[in-house]
Design goal:
Blueprint (H helix, E strand, L loop, with lengths): L2 H16 L6 H8 L3 H7 L3 H24 L5 H13 L8 H10 L3 H24 L5 H21 L4 H21 L1
Helix pairs in contact: 1-2, 1-4, 4-5, 4-7, 5-8, 5-9, 6-7, 7-8, 8-9
Length: 184
């Protein structure tokens, strides 16, 4: 594994588990086994490392979600099934993007931008699922589903039991109402 990849793996685990501000570059160096000099050659600042971590997290998170949903008969319901599985993971600590925004989003434009891109990418994906489901207004349903996904994720940070199930039921009701409006 190359130096930059080792740094990203270590930083990802530390940032997600402990928070961005609680982890210093020396912590990442120690966890990755990469010298501080090589770490800074790959990532010239902590902000650059945080952005790379978030971009990597976006790619992996979206790939996992889309792979799970692909080919399922009820794709909207499958989104919430995937969430339920994610919420049950031992290392679940909520949305890494919301967490990052809460820590640095108001003081770091690059972090705010990568968080925004992730949420936009998720919204676009949900819009595609809404259109495939026959929603009269896929944009409206996508916004509703995004609020349910984010709300369930925040709720699951405190109490993972049932958050995805409740959100799935609300998502199904929202999808039913906008697809019924399309048929009317």
């Amino acid at each position: 594994m190359e130096h930059a990849e080792r740094v990203l793996v270590a930083a990802g685990e530390l940032f997600y588990r402990r928070g961005l501000q609680a982890v210093g570059m020396d912590d990442v160096r120690a966890a990755s086994g990469v010298s501080l000099k090589r770490l800074y050659q790959s990532f010239p600042s902590k902000e650059a490392l945080v952005v790379a971590y978030l971009e990597r997290r976006d790619e992996r998170w979206m790939s996992s979600l889309t792979a799970y949903v692909e080919g399922r008969q009820n794709a909207i319901s499958a989104v919430f099934e995937w969430l339920e599985r994610w919420f049950g993971e031992d290392d679940f600590r909520g949305c890494g993007f919301v967490n990052a925004y809460g820590e640095l989003g108001t003081s770091s434009e690059p972090v705010r931008e990568v968080v925004w891109r992730h949420k936009q990418r998720l919204r676009d994906y949900l819009r595609g699922l809404a259109a495939e489901a026959g929603a009269a207004d896929p944009d409206v349903l996508a916004e509703q589903l995004l609020v349910l996904v984010d709300g369930a994720t925040v709720t699951a940070m405190v109490n993972p039991a049932g958050a995805a199930t409740v959100a799935r039921a609300a998502g199904q009701a929202a999808a039913a109402s906008v697809t019924a409006a399309c048929r009317a």
